[in-house]
Write a structure and sequence with these properties.
The protein is of the alpha/beta class. It is built from 23 helices and 22 strands. β19 and β20 form a beta hairpin. α13 packs across α14 and α18 crosses α22. The two termini are about 50 Å apart. The C terminus is likely disordered.
Length: about 550
C-alpha cells in the first residue's frame, strides 16, 4: 500500500455552470413542470380523472410551488368551461376557520362560505389549517363522504348555535374536489388522527428535493427563480450571476451533479444580491453583488464559528495543525446555525492497554452519544475483530473520545478517524496532525460517504490559514464524496497553489499509510503484534517436566 495519495486537482474541487447555458432566461413558472416531472404527471392524472376526487400535495416548501399548482388547476377549469360551458370555481384558502368554511350571517350581512364558493369546482387548503381548528376536518370529511352539508354538521362541531354566526343553508348539496397541500409531518398527523384519510385521498403528489444538474434543469430552475422574484426585482440579473446561483444550488444539494430545489433560499439570496448591487451602484445583479450577499449572510450567521476560532486561538480548545502524535487525530464536525452551517475540527484520542473491558466509547458512557454514533463505534469493533482476531480471540481495554465536546455527539462520520486513533495507540505509531480525517467505515474498512463535506474541509482549512499554511496541510475524504465538492474560492486557490490538499481515499489502509507515513501492512503487523503481546498464549508443560 502506498504511503501517499494523489491530491485532487482544482478542477475536481468545484463544478461551474456555464453562463451561456442560462443566458437570455425569461421568467416562467412553467419551468416547474421540468423540475418536477413526477409531481406534474401525478397532478395531471388527477385533474384528468373523473374517478379520483381528492388529492394530497406534499412538499416541505410548498409555498414555492403554490402559484403553479393553482394555475394548473385553473387551466383545467378553463378548459372544462370551453368544453361544457360550465364554470368550475377554484378556491384557494391558505388559512381557514369554521366560520370561513361554512359562512357567516351577522345582521343583514351574509358572507358565503368557502364550501359554497367551491361547489362544483376545486377547494385548495393547507392541511395545517385542518389540524389547528377543532372540528374543521370533521365537517369537510362529512361533505366529501356524503356530498351534502347540513346544519347538523355545524351543530355537531359547535355544540350550540352561535347567535352571530349561522350556517347559510340548512341542507344543501356540495360537490367539490379537495386538494390538500402541506408538509409531510402534517399529513402523517392527519392520517394518525383519522384512518379514513387514506381512503379519501387515493393519489399523492410529491415535489422533488433535487433535480439533475443538466443545462435544461438549470434553465428551468433559473426561469422559476426569476418568476418568483419578478415583483421584487428592479434590475436585470447577469448570466454570470444566474450561473453562480446554479452553483449555489449545487452546493446546497451537497452534490455537484444535482441542484437543490430550495426556492426560498435562492429567492432570499437573489433579492439580497439586488440590495448589494444597489449599494455598490451597479446597473444589474452581477457576480460581485451575489458574492457579497453570500459573504454577508455567512458573516452575520458566523458568531458561533468565530467563538470557536477564538477558543482555538486562545488555546482553550486543543487542536494541533502540525507535528505528529500517538493515538490522536483531527476529525471534522459540522454545526448548523439556522440555514447556515460551518465545519469545526475536533480532536479524537484513544488509549489502549491489556484488559478485558473492550472498546469503551466515553461519549456513550456519559450519555452524550446518539444512536448513530454508537452504531459507528460498534462497526469499529467489528472491523477490529475481522482484521486482527480471526484466528483467535484477543482482549484489550481501549477508550476513545472526542476531546473537549460538552454537548451530544451524533453521526458516524468520525468512525474512520476513531479507528485510526485506536490503531495508532495500539501500535504506538504517531499520526500526522496537519491532516484532518472525515469518513465513515464499514466492518471491512471501506471508507463511506459523509455529509457536510464542503463545510468540513473549509473549517479545517480556515483554521490552518489562520495559523499560516505550511503547504503540507489537508484533509482526507471518502472518494465517493468527490462529487460533493463545491468548495469556496479561497480553498480552491490554496489547493491550486499547493498550500492545501484534499486527498480521496477508498479504504482505511490508504488513510493509515497516509497518516503514519508507514505502509499499511507494516502498521497492521505492528497492531497484531501488540495485541498478541497483550494476550500471550498459555505455556504448555509436558508430564515429564512437571514431574521433574
Amino acid at each position: 500500500m502506498p504511503t501517499s495519495i494523489t491530491a485532487l486537482t482544482s478542477e475536481h474541487l468545484y463544478t461551474h455552470t456555464s453562463p451561456e447555458g442560462v443566458a437570455s432566461i425569461e421568467p416562467a413558472l412553467t419551468g416547474i413542470s421540468v423540475l418536477h416531472p413526477r409531481a406534474t404527471s401525478a397532478l395531471t392524472a388527477f385533474l384528468r380523472s373523473r374517478r379520483q376526487k381528492h388529492v394530497m400535495v406534499m412538499d416541505e416548501g410548498i409555498e414555492a410551488w403554490r402559484d403553479w399548482l393553482v394555475a394548473e388547476i385553473e387551466a383545467l377549469a378553463a378548459s372544462q368551461y370551453v368544453l361544457t360551458g360550465r364554470t368550475m370555481p377554484v378556491v384557494y384558502e391558505p388559512s381557514i376557520s369554521l366560520a370561513q368554511l361554512l359562512g357567516t350571517a351577522v345582521g343583514n350581512h351574509v358572507r358565503e362560505g368557502v364550501l359554497h364558493r367551491a361547489d362544483g369546482g376545486f377547494l385548495i387548503i393547507r392541511v395545517a389549517s385542518l389540524l389547528q381548528a377543532t372540528g374543521l376536518w370533521q365537517v369537510i370529511k362529512g361533505v366529501l363522504q356524503t356530498g351534502r352539508l347540513s346544519a347538523d354538521d355545524w351543530y355537531s362541531v359547535q355544540g350550540h348555535r352561535l347567535s352571530e354566526t349561522l350556517p347559510l343553508v340548512n341542507d344543501c348539496s356540495i360537490q367539490l374536489r379537495l386538494v390538500l397541500v402541506g408538509e409531510a409531518h402534517h399529513f402523517f398527523a392527519l392520517e394518525e388522527a383519522d384512518s379514513d384519510v387514506v381512503v379519501l385521498f387515493e393519489r399523492l403528489v410529491e415535489f422533488e428535493d433535487f433535480a439533475p444538474r443538466t443545462t435544461e434543469m438549470e434553465q428551468a430552475l433559473m426561469s422559476v427563480l426569476l418568476a418568483r422574484c419578478q415583483s421584487d426585482l428592479v434590475m436585470n440579473v447577469s448570466a454570470e450571476a444566474l450561473a453562480l446561483c446554479c452553483d449555489y444550488a449545487s452546493r446546497l444539494a451537497e452534490d455537484a451533479t444535482r441542484l437543490a430545489l430550495r426556492m426560498d433560499q435562492l429567492e432570499a439570496l437573489l433579492l439580497r444580491a439586488q440590495d448589494e448591487a444597489i449599494q455598490l451602484g451597479h446597473e444589474q445583479i452581477d457576480v460581485p453583488a451575489l458574492t457579497l450577499a453570500m459573504d454577508n449572510d455567512r458573516y452575520e450567521a458566523g458568531r458561533l464559528e468565530a467563538e470557536y476560532r477564538q477558543a482555538i486561538t486562545a488555546g482553550w480548545l486543543s487542536i494541533a495543525t502540525k507535528g505528529e502524535a500517538v493515538g490522536q487525530v483531527n476529525a471534522l464536525t459540522v454545526y448548523e446555525v439556522g440555514r447556515m452551517a460551518f465545519g469545526q475540527p475536533v480532536k479524537i484520542s484513544a488509549q489502549t492497554s491489556p484488559g478485558n473491558d473492550g472498546l469503551v466509547d466515553i461519549e456513550k458512557e456519559v450519555d452524550l452519544a446518539g444512536p448513530i454514533h454508537s452504531k459507528g463505534m460498534l462497526i469499529v469493533q467489528g472491523y477490529m475483530r475481522g482484521r486482527f482476531m480471526r484466528s483467535r480471540s484477543m482482549a484489550l481495554t481501549a477508550s476513545v473520545v472526542m476531546e473537549q465536546t460538552y454537548e451530544g455527539v451524533e453521526g458516524d462520520s468520525a468512525s474512520a478517524a476513531e479507528t485510526l486513533a485506536l490503531l495508532s495507540s495500539i501500535a504506538q505509531i504517531p499520526l500526522r496532525q496537519d491532516i484532518a480525517v472525515t469518513g465513515a467505515i464499514n466492518q471491512f474498512g471501506d471508507v463511506q460517504a459523509v455529509g457536510g463535506i464542503n463545510e468540513k474541509i473549509e473549517g479545517f482549512f480556515r483554521l490552518c490559514a489562520m495559523r499560516g499554511l505550511t503547504g503540507s496541510q489537508g484533509v482526507l475524504i471518502p472518494v465517493v464524496n468527490c462529487q460533493s465538492l463545491m468548495l469556496a474560492e479561497d480553498v480552491r486557490r490554496a489547493c491550486e497553489a499547493g498550500q492545501f490538499h484534499v486527498y480521496p481515499v477508498v479504504h482505511l489502509d490508504e488513510a493509515l499509510a497516509m497518516m503514519t507515513g508507514v505502509p499499511a501492512e507494516q502498521v497492521n503487523a505492528r497492531v497484531l503484534q501488540a495485541l498478541e503481546q497483550m494476550n500471550p498464549l498459555p505455556v504448555e508443560h509436558d508430564d515429564e517436566s512437571l514431574s521433574a
